[in-house]
């Protein structure tokens, strides 16, 4: 039997929906539920247990009909609310819209364009499916007041999402062209809440502007102007890439070509967009096993550098041949961030150092701050997310450990996989010109600032309450030791976040300078623990010494990971 209140919700949604396919699915599920199908009833309850909330990450959810899902009706209502917000801020707002290759992405983008046009906005739709960084570039390059990117980034195939950027006349400070932060998220959500049924929202079927395809070549040219190092290209440099079935394949390869890197191979099975992501379980280069195909390609081609974009190409997974183990391996995001940060910092002109800032999220490695101090640059810690990192003062490079790298702050106020890829290629090329590899680069940095080793423990749990409880256990009963070293400091970032807004994170530091940070994930049902050890290294340390030290530190951090799993 279906609860009367639930049936009313479903019927009201059907009455206001715009998708014949979604209406048919809901009618069928409702009929089954009323006939006693327990699974159908549970399915309806799940689809209508609430409203898909619009927050600082915009919208993200499973693509199914219903108020608590991602679908055309939800998107149309969100677009209408965003349009009202923009119209209240400025006259004739200019908005750009991008989309990736996921199921319904183009449909959601076109629906949004129709809503924005009917609401009186100056609407510009991307010419085709393109990476998120190109949309973020267009927001600034076209002097738009707002931007929308339809993507669920690295989420599973069943999901989609809706990212919102603000700029030009609405946001004019350091956040111009960045994703939204409070109070804008609440203001937009309030306007969305006022929107009635989706099929009552005025929606043009045509008439918006389509951005010329030259926006992509403009992106290439501007990134090249900002990042090209002028060095000759080593013929030895061989690059293996993967697009992870997303929209970054051609953009990454073509941008590498623009920078003079012509020896680029790609995984053919993953190069073309495919919204079902058939060769990966979870299309996130961070996930174990996701980069296996590009690592195998690199091994067969004897590549010096491995690059893997996530489906919307804002993130970048990277890999190298590790001389210490004799094997190819994936880099931690912190290792990539450290190498790029070091490269950027050492190339800043002396006169500009005191006004140039490196920034990273508080859960990222401490190395970027050490590098900033080493080269005489400024450093700014931020909350997690590029909506915060991009707002750092005088930013020249920012990153977070979740393989996100903001490399061209003047152009793109978000993480940018393709441009991070060419920076890594330039670092690898410079190393080869000096008869070194990226493995040597990591060793050289360790000789200058010490050896920092990172690991993560992610504990997937089935409820927010269990996730919060896992973090709370550290807050109320922290361990006395980690890796046999006494815990000498515990900082609760809800109470003391060192000048940043409070956030639910616990930071533990041991006597031997090991650091552990615990927090709930902002995008996945996980409790996440970030572990980093430190060991001083002499500037004359030999390769053999570093090999032994890396082995010891990896064993030490593995032990701490097991302690965290047992504790949580």
Molecular structure report:
It is a single chain. The protein is of the alpha/beta class. The chain folds into four domains: 1-49, no CATH class; 50-212, Alpha-D-Glucose-1,6-Bisphosphate, Chain A, domain 3 (3-Layer(aba) Sandwich); 229-437, Alpha-D-Glucose-1,6-Bisphosphate, subunit A, domain 3 (Alpha-D-Glucose-1,6-Bisphosphate, Chain A, domain 3); 450-567, TATA-Binding Protein. Helices cover 39% and strands 20% of the residues. It contains 18 helices and 22 strands. It has helices at 4-16, 20-34, 38-47, 72-89, 105-118, 132-141, 184-193, 214-227, 249-258, 268-271, 292-301, 333-346, 367-375, 386-389, 417-433, 438-449, 464-476, 543-567, and strands at residues 59-62, 94-99, 122-125, 146-150, 159-166, 178-179, 209-210, 239-242, 264-266, 305-309, 316-322, 327-330, 357-361, 378-382, 395-400, 404-406, 451-460, 481-482, 485-492, 506-510, 515-520, 526-535. Strands 1, 2, 3, 4, 5, 6 and 7 form a seven-stranded mixed beta sheet that branches. Strands 17-22-21-20-19-18 form a six-stranded antiparallel beta sheet. A five-stranded mixed beta sheet has the order 9-8-10-11-12, sandwiched between helices. Helix 2 crosses helix 3 and helix 8 crosses helix 9. It is globular, with a radius of gyration of 24 Å. The chain starts with a helix and ends with a helix. The model has no long low-confidence stretch (mean pLDDT 95).
Instruction: Give the CATH superfamily of the largest domain.
Output: Alpha-D-Glucose-1,6-Bisphosphate, subunit A, domain 3
Percent strand:
15-25%
Counting structural domains, the number is 4
Number of helices: 18
**Fraction of helical residues:** 25-40%
Distance between the termini: 40 Å
Largest sheet: 7 strands, mixed
Ranges where pLDDT stays below 50 over 5 or more residues in a row are none
Rg over CA atoms, rounded to whole Å, is 24 Å
Can you tell me the CATH class of the largest domain? Alpha Beta
The CATH architecture of the largest domain would be 3-Layer(aba) Sandwich
Mean pLDDT: 95
The gross shape turns out to be: globular
Structural class designation: alpha/beta
What is CATH's topology name of the largest domain?
Answer: Alpha-D-Glucose-1,6-Bisphosphate, Chain A, domain 3
């Amino acid at each position: 039997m279906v609860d009367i209140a639930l049936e009313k919700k479903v019927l009201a949604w059907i009455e206001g929906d715009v998708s014949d396919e979604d209406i048919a699915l809901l009618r069928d599920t409702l009929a089954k539920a009323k006939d006693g199908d327990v699974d159908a009833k549970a399915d309806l309850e799940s689809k209508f247990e609430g409203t898909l909330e619009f927050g600082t990450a915009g919208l993200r959810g499973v693509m199914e009909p219903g108020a608590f899902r991602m679908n055309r009706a939800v998107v149309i209502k969100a677009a209408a609310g965003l349009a009202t917000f923009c119209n209240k801020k400025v006259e004739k707002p200019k908005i750009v819209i991008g989309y990736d290759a996921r199921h319904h992405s183009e449909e959601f983008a076109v629906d949004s364009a129709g809503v924005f046009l009917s609401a009186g906005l100056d609407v510009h739709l991307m010419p085709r499916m393109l990476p998120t960084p190109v949309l973020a570039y267009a927001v600034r390059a076209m002097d738009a007041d707002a931007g929308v990117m339809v993507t669920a980034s690295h989420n599973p195939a069943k999901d989609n999402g809706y990212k919102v950027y603000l700029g030009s006349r609405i946001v004019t400070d350091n956040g111009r062209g960045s994703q939204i932060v409070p109070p804008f998220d609440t203001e937009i959500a309030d306007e969305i809440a006022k929107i009635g049924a989706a099929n009552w929202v005025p929606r043009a079927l045509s008439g918006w502007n389509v951005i010329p395809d030259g926006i992509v070549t403009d992106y290439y040219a501007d990134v090249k102007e900002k990042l090209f190092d002028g060095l000759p290209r080593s013929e030895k440099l061989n690059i293996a890439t993967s697009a992870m079935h997303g929209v970054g394949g051609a953009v990454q390869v073509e941008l590498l070509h623009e920078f003079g890197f012509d020896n680029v191979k790609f995984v053919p099975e993953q190069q073309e967009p495919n919204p079902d992501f058939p060769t990966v379980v979870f299309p996130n280069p961070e996930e174990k096993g996701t980069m296996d195909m590009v690592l195998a390609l690199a091994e067969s081609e004897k590549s010096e550098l491995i690059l893997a974009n996530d489906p919307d190409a804002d993130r970048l997974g990277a890999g190298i041949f590790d001389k210490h183990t004799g094997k190819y391996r994936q880099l931690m995001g912190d290792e990539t961030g450290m190498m790029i940060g070091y490269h950027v910092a050492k190339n800043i002109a002396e006169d500009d150092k005191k006004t140039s800032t490196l920034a990273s999220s508080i859960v990222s490695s401490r190395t970027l701050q050490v590098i900033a101090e080493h080269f005489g640059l400024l450093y700014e810690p931020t909350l997690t997310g590029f909506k915060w990192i991009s707002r750092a003062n005088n930013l020249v490079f920012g990153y977070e450990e979740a393989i996100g790298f903001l490399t061209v702050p003047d152009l793109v106020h978000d993480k940018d996989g393709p441009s991070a890829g060419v920076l890594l290629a330039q670092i690898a090329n410079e190393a080869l010109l000096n008869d070194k590899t990226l493995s040597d680069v990591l060793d050289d940095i360790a000789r200058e600032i010490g050896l920092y080793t990172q690991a993560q423990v992610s504990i997937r749990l089935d409820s927010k309450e269990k996730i919060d409880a896992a973090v709370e256990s550290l807050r109320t009963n922290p361990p006395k030791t980690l890796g046999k070293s006494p815990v000498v400091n515990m900082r609760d970032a809800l109470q003391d976040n060192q000048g940043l807004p409070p956030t639910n994170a616990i930071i533990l530091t041991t006597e031997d300078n090991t650091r552990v940070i615990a927090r709930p994930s902002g995008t996945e049902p996980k409790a996440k623990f970030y572990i980093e050890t430190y060991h001083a290294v002499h500037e004359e340390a030999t390769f053999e010494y570093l090999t032994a030290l890396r082995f010891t530190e990896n064993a030490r951090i593995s032990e701490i990971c097991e302690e965290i799993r047992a504790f949580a």
